[in-house]
Amino acid sequence: MNGKNLILGVAAAIVVVAAIIVAQTMVSENAGSPATVIESALLPVAMVQAGPVLLTAEVASTPEDRAKGLGGRSGLATGEGMLLDFDKPDLYGIWMKNMQFPLDIIWLDTNLMVVHIESSVSPTTYPAVFKPSSPAKYVLEAPVGFVAESGLTVGATVGISGI
């Protein structure tokens, strides 16, 4: 190895080490503070694991927050969503009132098993109401493509931390 290659190799190694240090610093600064994951989060945040996909979801657990949902927002970033947490399982209907972007909507029972899925629900479907055929305690509103990317199907189970 000549002198130039040695210098380039050392410089590249320094850049890689610096990048790792910066990344670890950012992770440890955010550790224990899930609300920092979604900077614009107005609600508590939970992490949803669906197959290989991790989603950061604001948790709407009051009637007012659930009724508003994602209505009035201009969109969702990749990896973000909203989890509607109801008091008890029921056949909760979801509509696209005041929505400006489409969603994948997933209903989950108390065991976090998928009981119903509606993919690519458009705002133009309002005032139609989408309901599961089995009771659900949670409804996950995710960016379009989440269901396909995660491989979710009815009967699959998701993991949720932070609720």
UniProtKB/TrEMBL annotation:
Write down the Pfam families for this protein, in alphabetical order: DUF192 (PF02643)
Q: Which Gene3D superfamilies match?
A: Protein of unknown function DUF192
Q: Which PANTHER family match?
A: UPF0127 PROTEIN MJ1496 (PTHR37953:SF1)
Name by which UniProt lists this protein:
DUF192 domain-containing protein
Q: Which organism is it from?
A: Candidatus Taylorbacteria bacterium RIFCSPLOWO2_02_FULL_46_40
